[in-house]
Design a protein that fits this description.
This protein is mainly β. The chain has one domain: Roll (Pnp Oxidase, Chain A). It is built from four helices and 14 strands. A seven-stranded antiparallel beta sheet has the order 3-2-6-9-10-5-4, covered by helices on one side. Strand 4 and strand 5 form a beta hairpin. The protein is globular, with a radius of gyration of 18 Å. The termini are far apart.
Amino acid sequence: MFYRPEDGHGLPHNPFNAIVTPRPIGWISTRGSDGSENLAPYSFFNAVAYVPPQVMFASTTAKPDRDGTKDSVSNIRDTGVFCVNVVEYAARDVMNVTSGPWDKEVDEFTKAGIERAECDTIPCSRVANTPANLECKLTQILQLPGEANFAVFGEVTGVHLRDDCLVDGMFDVTKFQPLARLGYRDYSRVADLFSLKRPGE
């Protein structure tokens, strides 16, 4: 099968998200300039640089009360900071609650019953007791082709690691099993690892 996206795919559901998988989930917490708080998952998310450490996520839909984007991007525009919270398999249901199309007045921490903690390097809340948190300062927001597509880049200014996820000095993902986004309504978790040496190592 071959199709041009501009012509449509002719399938019952769009296969694009199922092709680019698995995708890590950036559970993004933000605080508006008015003090309101937001927590939302984004599966267009990844690390993009080591030194200095940098991450990105993309928002691809808009809400009528947020000037052509969503709460996360709007808050980051205002404050210049955000926090990435790592989603473990055990948090799949509360993470899903935070994905709802809630009004900007809704605090997803409260709605989903999620414990919050204050970040150390930025004025923002983070998900308490999650395997890791990346505190970030905004470096740039890029508007991508399309009506509401924005890529947000940030430099990591603080890192929290949960103690039980550190084994022999290494961050062990099998201790919490990261949740990954697949296509459609499907998810997966990382439970098994294998290693490969690069040529010449």
